[in-house]
Each structure stands twice: as structure tokens, then as C-alpha cells.
What does this fold into?
Amino acid sequence: MSEPNPRPAVATAPISVILFAQALSTDTADALRAWQTYLESLKRPFEIFLIQENRPDVASDGTPAPSPVPTYVYERDKGYRDAFNAAVAAAQYPLLAFCTCDKQYQPTDLERMLSVIDKVDLVVGYRTVGQAPPWRVMLDLFDVIFCRIILGIALEPRRCWLGSAGLGRRWIARWVFGVRVLDPECPFRLARREIFKNWPIQSGGPFLQIEMLAKANHVTCLLAEEGVSWTPPTMPSSDAISFGQDAWQVFRSPEFGAAPAPASATPG
It folds into this structure.
């Protein structure tokens, strides 16, 4: 098999970061400071964009509380599709990182993604949490023995165990949309910005993460995976647009073509 075409080196290039803020999270300000501190340590130009739900109860005039970075707000019932596409379109640097704006992930884990981005188009994080239960360990052992003896294939050891939560969504990602990564819902990623120029995101809810990978696969992007530390959130996500709604829309009528022009961000 021939080697993939070499990619231009971008690991030391300036970087744009898009962060998703939970509507009721109290960690947003601390997370923004942590990201800014880490990015300053890289000694390269950077910019940060925040995607945040519009909450009239936050300020008397109906606008979100002031933010130190450009902020794209969205209405809960419409989802964050337009805000996300606008932030991607506004990004000006060759590298584009994504993460939640809370304490679930550590900005320093971006270092491992930067170390491999020169070889690929998109680096996907996977949450290195927990130990597989005994029944899963035994089943993995059976799979290893079967594949080695019967099929002559050496399986890699399991690198993460996400539990039963979200198992149905991961099954859909793998067998319906062809997303064969360990943790397709992990929002911590690093990409070459150029890969987004020919396909906008349609999802306004949690399916966004899987849609991104499915479309990257479709246009033959090369993917890599890197483990990231993870702390479970203190409050569950409450998206108005369900995983199933977006999954059906993307499956039925996937959109490709020029991404929309950038919209204006709310001033910080």
C-alpha cells in the first residue's frame, strides 16, 4: 500500500481555538483563562472564539455577559449550527482546535495533538478514563485469540473504556456513518482549517461531533487519535436539538459545498 501524500508542516503555525460554553456552567471564565495561559506559552499567534447560548436572564438587556474573546451566540431552540459555522469561517489561522469551555479537558493535552498534526488532517481526542469490567476484558481476550489464530490479525489493546452510556450513539457513528474512531463524541480536536472550506456543519446539537468526522472521512481526510485526560462534567448537557434529529437530517440530505460567510461576533 502506498504511503499517503505528505501534508504541509503546520505544527508550529498560528492557531485558532473554538470553545463551546455550557449555558449554566460556572467554569467558563476559568477555562478561558486556562486556555489563554496555555496558548501564550506556545509563543505563537493565536485567537479564541466562544460559542455560547443567548440567555436573557444573564443581563438586563437580553445579551450574554461580556466576554474577553469574540463570542458567537445562538438561540437554544435553533442550536449552535450557525454560530459554529460563523466561528470557523472567521478563524484566520492554519490550525483550528475545538474543545468545551469548562474543566472537562486540559488545554495542555493539545501538545500531543500538535505533535502528530503534520502527518494528518484532523486529530481526534479520546477520553482515557476507567477500566473495562471483567466481562469486557474476557470478551476482548476472546477477540484477540480468535483474530490472531483464525484470521491472522493482531488486534491493538483497548485504549479506553467509555462504559455503556452513549453506546447506541457510538454504534450509529460506526456502522451508519462510518466513523471508526475510539471516541467519536469527544469534542477535543485539532484540525487543519482548510478542510472545512468545502463542507458546512448542519447539526445544531450533540451530533455535530460525529458529523464533522463523517464528512472528513467522505472527503478523504486523514485522521489520527490521541488520548486526552477527562473529568466528567458537573451538570449534564441539555441540548434542545436531539442527536437523532441531526443524525437523520445529515443521513438524508448531507450538505457539501462552500461554507457560509462569517457572521459578526458579539463584542467582548
